[in-house]
């Protein structure tokens, strides 16, 4: 049985639905602190779980014969800067609870997401390498970097098969984003449809690595389905698809909504974005387990608008 922790989040909802399609609804248990997300209702088992409660998690793992754990619960970059100690505590304790129970119960596989946020202002910005200077300047980035070190440690010392991807900014329409710096690239679609205008909290030339959620979900499943021997990176794989700036995505949206206008009012999130890479070198993921993105800016924009128009109409 698979347990998804943080199943009601931006990634969790879609990952749960994809895993249920692959393994059968009854075999994927969704859990979150929040109440069950609309899209998950009626599609499989749901339990309320506070991942910070190690005993509760341990009982759940035993009672439901859990053999794989996907840990998606975390405080993201922007929210984390508002409450650094809480973000550190939640992001680290949740991971250590899962890793230690995985070791004790001999869980087959664990998935835990890292992020491009592990890189800082001193890392190379173009085609940021898998191995390079890593000096994160946000608590979220610090917790993700520390988490990567713990994942590698639990794999090397205890043989826990934990796997991880450094996600770029993820764009999706099925579930709300969770307080990230890249969330402008989701908000812009909603505002373009509803208001025909958007005030962006990042400056027009802020290039960031981005990915459409279908690619992120497929990458996660392809990584988890790969033979153990292919996984050479046990901290977290760089993962890339595209890079764009607010100016570029606005121009792409204008092709579909000509009257759309954008203006810029950078806030505290600009400093976070300035410290991040502009594009990723994901050679290791491509060589080790065959990673290849399918969505680029044009295709993603068309798909986002098509799907959001349907939901807005409802
Ligand atoms: C954030 N969406 O903005 C997340 C992600 C690379 C960005 O980690 O914090």
UniProtKB/TrEMBL annotation:
<dbReference type="GO" id="GO:0008743">
    <property type="term" value="F:L-threonine 3-dehydrogenase activity"/>
</dbReference>
<dbReference type="InterPro" id="IPR001509">
    <property type="entry name" value="Epimerase_deHydtase"/>
</dbReference>
<dbReference type="InterPro" id="IPR051225">
    <property type="entry name" value="NAD(P)_epim/dehydratase"/>
</dbReference>
<comment type="similarity">
    <text>Belongs to the NAD(P)-dependent epimerase/dehydratase family.</text>
</comment>
<dbReference type="GO" id="GO:0006567">
    <property type="term" value="P:L-threonine catabolic process"/>
</dbReference>
<feature type="domain" description="NAD-dependent epimerase/dehydratase">
    <location>
        <begin position="2"/>
        <end position="240"/>
    </location>
</feature>
<protein>
    <submittedName>
        <fullName>NAD-dependent epimerase/dehydratase family protein</fullName>
    </submittedName>
</protein>
<dbReference type="Pfam" id="PF01370">
    <property type="entry name" value="Epimerase"/>
</dbReference>
<dbReference type="InterPro" id="IPR036291">
    <property type="entry name" value="NAD(P)-bd_dom_sf"/>
</dbReference>
């Amino acid at each position: 049985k698979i347990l998804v922790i943080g199943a009601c989040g931006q990634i969790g909802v879609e990952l749960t639905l994809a895993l249920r399609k692959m393994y059968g609804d009854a075999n994927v248990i969704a859990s979150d602190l929040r109440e069950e997300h609309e899209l998950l209702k009626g599609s499989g088992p749901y339990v309320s779980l506070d991942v910070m409660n190690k005993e509760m998690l341990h009982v759940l793992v035993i009672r439901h014969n859990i053999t794989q754990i996907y840990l998606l619960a975390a405080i993201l970059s922007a929210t984390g800067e508002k409450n650094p100690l809480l973000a550190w505590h939640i992001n680290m304790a949740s991971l250590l609870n899962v890793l230690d129970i995985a070791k004790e119960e001999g869980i087959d596989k664990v998935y835990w997401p890292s992020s491009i946020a592990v890189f800082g202002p001193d890392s190379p910005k173009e085609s940021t390498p898998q191995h390079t200077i890593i000096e994160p300047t946000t608590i979220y980035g610090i917790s993700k970097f520390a988490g990567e070190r713990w994942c590698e440690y639990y794999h090397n010392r205890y043989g826990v098969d934990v796997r991880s991807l450094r996600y770029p900014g993820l764009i999706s329409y099925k579930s709300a984003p969770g307080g990230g710096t890249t969330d402008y690239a989701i908000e812009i679609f909603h505002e373009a449809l509803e208001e025909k205008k958007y005030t962006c909290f990042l400056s027009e030339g802020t290039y960031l690595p981005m990915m459409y959620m279908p690619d992120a979900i497929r990458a996660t499943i392809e990584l988890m389905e790969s033979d153990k021997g292919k996984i050479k990176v046990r901290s977290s794989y760089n993962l890339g698809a595209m890079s764009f700036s607010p100016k570029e995505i606005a121009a792409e949206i204008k092709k579909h909504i000509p009257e759309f206008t954008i203006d810029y009012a950078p806030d505290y999130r600009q400093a976070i974005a300035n410290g991040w890479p502009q594009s990723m070198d994901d050679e290791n993921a491509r060589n080790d387990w065959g990673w290849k993105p399918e969505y680029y800016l044009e295709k993603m924009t068309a798909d986002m608008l098509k799907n959001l128009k349907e939901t807005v109409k409802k």
